[in-house]
Amino acid sequence: SAADQVLGLEVVSGDGKILRTGHAAFRGGKPFYRAHGPDLTGLFLHDSGALGIKTEATFRLIEMPAYTECLSFAFTDAQSAAAALSQIGRADAAEEIYVLDPETTARNMQSGTLASDARRLGDIVTGQRNLLAGIKAGIGVVVAGKKLVPAHAHSLHLACAARSDSAVQADAAICRRLAAQQGGQEIPNSIPLAARAAPFDNLNGAVGPAGERWAALNAKVPHSDVRPLIEQFDALQAAHQSKLDELNIRVSTLFTAMQTHIFSFEVVFHWFDEWLPMHKEVPEADYLGRLQKPQPNPAATAYVHEIREATLQLFDQLGVASNQIGRAYPFMERLDPDVAQLMSSLKHELDPQGLMNPGALGLARSDKQA
Length: 370
Prior knowledge:
single chain; alpha+beta; 19% strand
């Protein structure tokens, strides 16, 4: 949804042209308005760099709301939690809302050092609207500790935001009512408080808390398509479960509501194999120093590739959307033929030599192929 906040771009195309979009594309224009004519800004968003390099972006900004209310709820199963997420998302009562499965919650509780936990607590305290509210929030987190979510529960976490206390409490009341309708039990709100306090945390999570690698896939569907998506992925996982257990491959899921009409389903595969250069270079040294480097395990990695491909095939059958379409997801081959031809023509026009991220989106790698 961040792309929806972009008002204009500066893009360098494959043949060296500098292109500006939105109102800035006009003589005397300024990058404050996107819809002045055809939406050329949207053309370069989610293109994986295949159509050009973004060198500048102008975003729509708002003043941060003065009042927030974070809530958490526990559910006995994924479908109930998903239904509550959809209802709250449709109601537009929460600024952010997501569901963690038991596997994800356990991993989140394992990660982090004493120092990072202390910094996070400080961020929670200082991030409240006043000192008293900060102290209350901090005490609540300390009292709850890390035993926040009942065992085997799917947990829903959200943040309401508004310009007045009465408004934010009204939104929170809507969320509580909708969560209760699906059987949700309110639990300590430490997880959304911590997530909101540090939205851009360190990148230590590139390696899991036990030193494992991970790979994620996501699907975007309308709320009306959520139940069959969860059911069919659960069936797919069940068919592979014995081999997953044999190779110690764990599967976790994350649900998110985006705006009022999108349900995001993310599945993550976790396994042990030797680290790639990325895993050694991105996390902080002290974090890596606490982990034991895994031994080579090519069989597990090969099976992760296999189940990822099976998951992508399921997503394709269900006609889902995705915002990570660079190389893992089919794009050009799923387009209607006339639209695919238009995309090829745009690629040829903007990048005649195929220099810009060749192969991304399934677009031709060279001018000859285009």
